[in-house]
Design brief:
Belongs to the acyl-CoA dehydrogenase family. The chain is α+β, with helices and mostly antiparallel strands. Helices cover 48% and strands 12% of the residues. The chain folds into four domains: 7-115, Acyl-CoA dehydrogenase/oxidase, N-terminal domain (Butyryl-Coa Dehydrogenase, subunit A, domain 1, Orthogonal Bundle); 147-259, Butyryl-CoA Dehydrogenase, subunit A, domain 2; 267-416, Butyryl-CoA Dehydrogenase, subunit A, domain 3 (Up-down Bundle); 424-454, no CATH class. The protein has 14 helices and seven strands. It has a four-stranded antiparallel beta sheet, with no helix packed on it. Helix 11 (351-376) packs antiparallel against helix 12 and helix 11 (351-376) packs across helix 13. It is globular, with a radius of gyration of 25 Å. The relative contact order is 0.09.
């Protein structure tokens, strides 16, 4: 029997299988089994525990139980790069395969301590913090005994241009004083959220706009922080983590809470974002696979026979199923290519492929899940299926880490940089055509690929 006969590898293309280490193969199998046997059957229980009166902003007991099981099974912190002593040693490509499986349940990633914003925050703290900071702030995150939040977005500024971030960080003696408003940091009503990693403006008159901002660690129990409210996303409050709206009024933190140094926020932010975008996209592939399975089940449901035919017997639905399969499979290839590019050439070289993934996959996922809801009719819009929550998550990810337009701008800008070499190539076509026409005594006309003067 082949090591890839396990259902975890059913959709993984051959070129990816060839790059998987024995360790990765075993981890991928274990992630699949854990999600299928522990997480999916527990979805209704998890929802019921959140709904207990007075417990909505308390992490569910079942979540703590599953996190313990995942940790014991060696499925904790699978995303950690190789330089961590606790790292399982997975490449971006190998971890991407795990991410797809985790994505089949929205919160499965959390059972394995592989959820946002923790993954990005852990990598940030590990990459840029001092040994003392790591001991105090990173270690609890790695052990899963605390959670954190990333505080960057502001309600009064264009989020797609982070140089406009206006929350002020002012040094006074041995303290930094913070004043401003923030959106989207995880809800501090959940007592497990112990600190924010906050990006603010510390040097507003610096002529280099990329050096005006700094990043500091702000404990959630610091006086002066007010959670104005929890933000709902398309009507969902995402308890017990949520998305807070915060007011910082003369919030004081010690100078040792600054990360890397003043003016280094953009360096830190860019070091944090790349891999996390891939994680989001692969989890969305998993969501789509789960939605697609529900659509297939609906198509053969003998209780649903409009005009005496199964839903899957209508030509339009047969084509719909086929197109969904094609879309999911091509999307997976785009993300796996981005992960492999990062492994081979580094995160910076992979930014183009990362941007492609961030544009294509959330858009694809919203379309796929919407089609699945159509097959379920009115029932597909209710809690009878997980489809509405899946669609909301996909729509949210279209905005998370930057709107589509920002990523399209990056891709388009990079593509336009290649125009000159193509113009030169077409001028060479024209030159060769002219020489060939003269040699054969043919009339020379304007070549269809005439290049402009450059």
């Amino acid at each position: 029997m082949s090591q890839f006969d396990h259902p975890a590898f059913h959709r993984i293309p051959p070129w990816v299988k060839a790059k998987l280490s024995p360790t990765a193969i075993e981890k991928i199998k274990k992630v699949y089994d854990f999600v299928e046997t522990e997480c999916i059957p527990a979805e209704p229980i998890m929802d019921a525990e959140i709904a207990v009166e007075g417990k909505r902003w308390t992490t569910q007991p079942l979540m703590h139980e599953l996190r313990g099981k995942a940790k014991s099974a060696g499925l904790f912190n699978l995303f950690l790069p190789n330089h961590f002593p606790e790292s399982p040693g997975l490449t971006n490509l190998e971890y991407a395969c795990c991410c797809e499986l985790m994505g089949r349940v929205y919160w499965a990633q959390q059972t394995m301590n592989c959820h946002a914003p923790e993954t990005g925050n852990i990598e940030l703290l590990a990459k840029y913090c001092t040994p003392e900071q790591k001991e105090k702030w990173l270690k609890p995150l790695l052990e899963g005994t605390a959670s954190s939040a990333y505080s960057m977005t502001e309600p009064d500024r264009a989020s797609s241009d982070a140089t406009q971030i206006a929350c002020r960080i002012t040094r006074e003696g041995n303290e930094y004083v913070i004043n401003g408003r923030k959106l989207y940091g995880n809800c501090m009503w959940n007592s497990e959220n112990k600190f924010f990693i906050l990006m603010g403006c510390s040097d507003p008159t610096n002529p280099n706009k990329w050096a005006r901002h700094s990043t500091v660690i702000v404990p959630t129990n610091t006086p002066g922080i007010t959670q104005v409210r929890n933000l709902t996303i398309m009507g969902y409050d995402h308890a017990p983590e949520g998305h807070g709206e915060y007011l910082y009024e003369n919030v004081r933190v010690p100078v040792e809470n600054i990360i890397l140094g003043e003016g280094r926020a953009f360096e830190i932010a860019q070091g944090r974002l790349g891999p996390g975008r891939i994680h989001h996209c692969m989890r969305l592939i998993g969501q789509c696979e789960r939605a697609y399975e529900l659509a297939l089940i609906r198509c053969i449901d003998a209780r649903k026979t409009p005009r005496g035919r199964l839903i899957g017997e209508f030509d339009s639905n047969i084509e719909r199923i086929a197109q969904m399969r094609l879309d999911i499979d091509q999307a997976r290839l785009v993300v796996l290519n981005a992960a492999d590019t990062m492994d081979v050439h580094g995160n910076k070289a992979g930014r183009y492929a990362i941007a492609q993934s961030k544009i294509l996959i959330p858009n694809m996922a919203t379309r796929i899940i919407d089609e699945c809801m159509q097959l379920y009719g009115g029932q597909g819009l209710t809690q009878h299926t997980p489809l509405p929550k899946m669609w909301t998550y996909a729509r949210f990810v279209r905005i998370a880490d930057g709107p589509d337009s920002a990523h399209r701008h990056q891709v388009g800008r990079d593509e336009l940089k290649t125009a000159k070499k193509y113009a030169e190539r077409h001028k060479e076509y024209q030159r060769r055509y002219k020489a060939l026409a003269e040699k054969r005594g043919e009339k020379y006309e304007t070549f269809w690929g005439t290049a402009p003067e450059i």
